[in-house]
Amino acid sequence: MSIATFFAMGGYAFYVWTAYGICFLVLVFNILMPIRQRLSFLQELARKQQRQQ
Amino acid sequence: MKFIPDPVGKFFHRMASPPHFYALAGQMIPWLTGIFLVLLGYGLFAGLYLAPTDYQQGDSYRIIYIHVPSAWMSLFIYIVMALAGAIGLIWRIKLAEIMAISSASVGASFTFIALVTGSLWGKPMWGTWWVWDARLTSELILLFLYLGVMGLYNAIDDKRTASKAVAILALVGVVNIPIIHYSVEWWNTLHQGPTVTKMDKPSIHISMLIPLLTMAVAFKFYYVIAVLQRARLELLHRERTSAWVKKLVMEQNK
Amino acid sequence: MNPARRQRLILIVVMVVGIAIAVGFALKSFNENLMYFFSTSDVVAGKAPKAALFRLGGMVVKGTVQHPGKGLMVQFKLTDFTKEVTVEYTGILPDLFREGQGIVANGTLDARGVFIAQEVLAKHDENYMPPEVKASLKKNMPTETSQ
Q1: Which of B91, B213, B243, C103 is least enclosed by beta carbons within 10 angstroms?
Q2: Residue C13 belongs to what domain range?
Q3: Could you tell me if residue C88 is inside a domain?
């Protein structure tokens, strides 16, 4: 199988790759969001603590 | 009445202590991510490349490798969320409350993925993006239940009260789970019947079944990773005034 | 379990069971409306609406797909293996439309008892297999039909 036929997905390329693309984006977003929020929250707490000292 | 022997009870008690959980989750996440990526890599390769084309649907059927595991996860996570909510309600365990609310956003994501990928599959095969049949409608209600849980939790400032309200909503919504599962048998639907979970011979060829099950296991690992990430954030928020969080921040400041 | 916890547990169980029963009754009374389509037997028995739009589901009978006249107009018979209904449709058919395929059509019955479809959707089955496997299955069971 050539790379071109693989990506063509038997004529259903749009449907298959859009589905996989959206799935991937949602899954990545769901991991990165809480990490970013947690790190920024920790920084916020750190700033508060330094001000109190 | 005593169901749980002492050492086991102690073990769980220690596990459920917030600082211990926070640290342990942080240590487990890299390992879980490694396993997830290996499973995902194999599942995608097998599903998109190794698995043969379907006799009827051609290559469009390959959406099954994300659609069906996502749909399974959307039901599985809801049950976990409702159970965690019930445990939180009855035993007032803080960590159970956190697990319940942390599951909601992951479950909502999988429900969303199941609906969108199903739509992208329905258009070329059925000839329509969406129909209001029993299966699709009940899955959409599941999405609204998840969003309702998330919205209710955010709307109530006191997070312990919020957790109680959310647990009750989640428990009420449990009735939707068997409806989703059996909708294709109880009513005439455009959506076809179950493939893998039906009792007699499985109606999917083994070369297509293996990647499907691999993806299903990969998504289970993903759920654990995502829920632990959320739970760590939620735990920090709730415990921001406690000694262990202060110590954590102090060590970070050095 | 201490009494307070037991009471909460019982309360939750009663609540969930109660709601499940209520929803069960509601679904039972709405049963007809939750059916996405009527079967061909329903139509022949006169259970389907006479003047209104409704959906008809069934299998395309082999050898009945015809193109009378010119253009996109297509005529075929649908069956649920008991009764047959003739369907007429003008438009683009989904990729999966073929003889022996399960489909759902949306439209109305005309005076002749012919179903005039405005939309045709394909209903595929829950079987997934490579074409070679399907071919060998067909050889072994010549009467096998895909719904």
Answers
A1: B243
A2: 3-32
A3: yes
Does residue C145 fall inside a structural domain?
Answer: no
CA distance B218 to B221: 5
Cβ separation B53–C131 shorter than 8 A:
yes
CATH of the domain at C97: 2.40.50.140
Separation of alpha carbons C26 and C2, rounded Å: 36
User: A36 lies in which domain range?
Assistant: 3-52
Cα dihedral C94, C96, C101, C102 sign = negative
Q: Are residues C61 and C7 in the same domain?
A: no
Task: Considering only the beta carbons, identify the residue of A18, A30, A42 that sits closest to B249.
Answer: A42
CB neighbour burial string for C60-89, b if at least 16 within 10 angstroms, e if fewer: bbeeeeeeeeeeeebbbbbbbeeebbebbb
- B105 to chain A: nearest residue by CA? A30
Are C16 and C65 part of one and the same domain?
A: no
Q: What residues pair up with C105 in beta bridges, in sequence order?
A: C56, C120
Residue-wise pLDDT tens digits, C92-119: 888 888 888 888 999 998 888 899 999 8
Count of structural domains within chain C: 2
The structure tokens listed for C81 are 């293996």
Q: Are residues C49 and C91 in the same domain?
A: yes
pTM: 0.88
- In this structure, of B55-64, B184-193, B212-221, the range with the lowest mean pLDDT score is B184-193
Question: What is the average pLDDT across C48-57?
Answer: 84
The ipTM is 0.92
Contact B240 A35 (CB under 8 A): no
